[in-house]
Each structure stands twice: as structure tokens, then as C-alpha cells.
From TrEMBL:
Pfam families: DUF4411. This is DUF4411 family protein. InterPro entries: UCP008505.
Length: 162
């Protein structure tokens, strides 16, 4: 059984573009159920990108039941994160480039740690870009990690509003 690891942009775009927390609560209820069933998670570092912000999405994320269900319960392996940076982006990134890649290496590293983990992101592959401009799907390809977009996730986990 796959465990789907969400990028921050999946949560943000779901709220901003398709399923506003206050307008389509069924989506967020489904997401919480999937998190409670250990089908959907996000690494703490990714959660920490979104939860401190303002607005309805952040308020939803900061609910203790949501946080407990959604956040992956393992500590990031820093050696694996460093390997993702060095082999996925470049071994000699400067401070500006490190800031550009943000917390994405934590997402890919969490997926590498165990089989059957799938990264879910809104980013699109751009194999021609290099260094800090590389996209998550291309980093995942480098490490043999399956990477899908949110709409594939919704189909695979059979999300629907009835």
C-alpha cells in the first residue's frame, strides 16, 4: 500500500484554487481521513512551510487532530537529505541556491526512506534545468521515487464529493 507524501503546494493550491476550506469542507474531511489511515502524510519540514502562515488553510492545519494525523511521525534523516541535495541538485550549492530549493529535499528524502512512498506535487518536470532550478519530479526520477500530481492522487485514492 502506497503512502503519499504531499508537497506544500498541493495543500496551498487545493485551498486557493479548487477546494477552499470554508467552501468545500468535504475535501478537507477526506484528506484528514486519508491522513488518519496513513495513506497521506507530509514531512514536518513541509508542514512547517504552510502552518505558520495566516488564513483558513493554516488554521485548519494547526488543529491538533489535523497536525497529528497529517505530519509524518519520523525524524528526517539528515544524511539522506544531504544526499538528495548533492546528487539531485548539485554538491556545491551556494547559500542563495540552498534558499531557492527550500525544504524540497526533505520531501524527497522522506520518500527514499521506505518503499511504496509516492511524492505528490504540483511542480512539473523540467529536465533541462540544473542546480537549484531543478523540479521535484526530476529529483524524484534521479532517486527512483514515483512522483505524481494531485489529480492522480485523487483518482488513486478515489476522492469524490457525493
Amino acid at each position: 500500500m502506497n503512502l503519499y507524501l504531499l508537497d506544500a503546494n498541493v495543500l496551498i493550491r487545493a485551498h486557493e484554487d479548487y477546494y477552499p476550506v470554508d467552501r468545500i469542507p468535504q475535501f478537507w474531511e477526506w484528506l484528514l481521513v486519508m491522513a488518519e489511515r496513513n495513506r497521506i502524510k507530509t514531512p514536518r519540514e513541509i508542514y512547517d512551510e504552510v502552518a505558520p502562515s495566516n488564513g483558513l488553510l493554516a488554521e485548519w492545519l494547526r488543529q491538533q487532530t489535523v497536525k497529528d494525523a497529517l505530519v509524518l511521525k519520523e525524524t528526517s534523516d539528515l544524511a539522506t537529505v544531504q544526499r538528495v541535495v548533492a546528487q539531485g541538485y548539485a554538491p556545491d550549492l551556494n547559500d542563495v541556491e540552498l534558499e531557492q530549493i527550500g525544504r524540497d529535499p526533505f520531501l524527497v528524502a522522506a520518500a527514499i526512506m521506505k518503499p511504496n512512498r509516492v511524492v505528490v506535487t504540483k511542480e512539473n518536470s523540467k529536465p533541462s534545468v540544473t542546480r537549484s532550478k531543478r523540479k521535484i519530479p526530476d529529483i524524484c526520477t534521479t532517486f527512483g521515487v514515483r512522483c505524481i500530481n494531485d489529480f492522480v492522487l485523487y483518482r488513486e485514492l478515489k476522492f469524490s464529493i457525493k
